[in-house]
Amino acid sequence: MKTISANTTVSVSELKKSLSAIIKKADGEPIAILNNNIPTAYLVPSDTYEELISKLEDYELGLIIKQREADKPGAVEVKLNEL
How many domains is the chain built from? Predict the structure, then answer.
């Protein structure tokens, strides 16, 4: 059985009937959308989504930094005024 990572769950059919009321009831928290009692999607507030994307981008940049640090011994040093 899949773990549900939200306090509020709703079926697809319930979501179709009263989307606005469900969003209001969730009070800014994620909503797990169930299809045949299996979580198939999450509805998250736009602020939460934007924060997640920002953190993902930061994580990816961190990976690039670590890779470049590992490649540093083989790098050729160039002074800015030589460019």
Answer: 1
